[in-house]
Amino acid sequence: MAGDRQPMRTVNFGVVGCGLMGREFASAVARWCHLADPPAWPRIVAVCGRGDQGLDWFRKRWPGLGQITREYRELMANPEVEAVYMALPHHLHAEVCCAALEAGKHLMAEKPLGMDLRAYEAIRACAVRHPDRLVRCASQWVFIPAVQRIGLAIERGAFGRIIEVNAGFLHSSDLDPEKPINWKRRVELNGEYGVMGDLGMHSCAVPFRAGWIPRNVRAVLCDIVTERPDVAGGRVPCRTWDNATLLCEAADGAGGQSFPMTLKFQRIAPGQKNTWYLEVLGTRASARYSTREPKRLEWMEYTGGEQIWGCIETGHETAYPTITGVNFEFGFSDAVLQMWAAFLSELAGVVPVRRFAGCATLEEAGLSHRLFTAALESHWRRSVAPVAGGD
Asked: Fewest 10 Å CB contacts: which of 49, 93, 109, 351?
């Protein structure tokens, strides 16, 4: 009976960081009615930012905001705020994430959840002291319907023994050497990881959730554009890694067998715009997917005889149901909405509907830090470096 249904829970959010992803979250909140039957409803009650442009964007589009501030500690002290979305440059992650947890807030943080391994460990220690707080790391690509299908295949063991895995994120926004420098190109703000901190977790999310753990890594890191224009018209050093290729010996957590796993992250990728891809090769089945062809999942099953790749046209087949029909197209903003649906569902006490329908965890973010730390060592020593905790 409709009258017996419990009222939907509302979760009050504070947004710390009014840049691109802060606005993407606000857009997802505005589209929440697109979800068919969510267990909770988000409401933005406070925003914090340093720049006028971001704050003005929220003022114009969210006229009922109860708090607009330039000081994040004021937002943390707001008793109305139950959960915080932290979307700030990497050097601020540890300070602001720990402040949110100490203030009793649930936390969704942008990757990499700390500028480096030391910063991550500070966040983790704070989370351990507050086990009743939900902490997740933002990464939306796993929620693409084709990737959800790959996840289901992993769950049922459809690939057989894993032969090889290749995953990556190819971006071209820094291809222009005259693009002015921003915080992601400054090592003191982005950290030594460079592109790995910016794009790495997106490519690691599916392999880590599958239990494919890197034991060691041989990394080649490239600083391609070594200086860029600044806002004053001069030129300044650009000391972060633009591109990274990581060849890992990975272990399948289910069977313990080793296989090669190549992870590629590029901010200077000629011919690309914003391409995420995944390839899984196994003894019984193989799969390939790229956002360059967002509806197409390539699939091959091998039972002897000819090896024939087939194409599955995916639609709007989502982990969290929406009002959109399954035959329609799925896009980036839909993936962001699905990620937030996963976070709100967990906040409401609902277990993810399947293994790959949950947000990236604190532990998975920690594994990415150990991998990227080993990758830095590998690059400088020009040798294979062990990944801590990989054995």
From this structure: 351
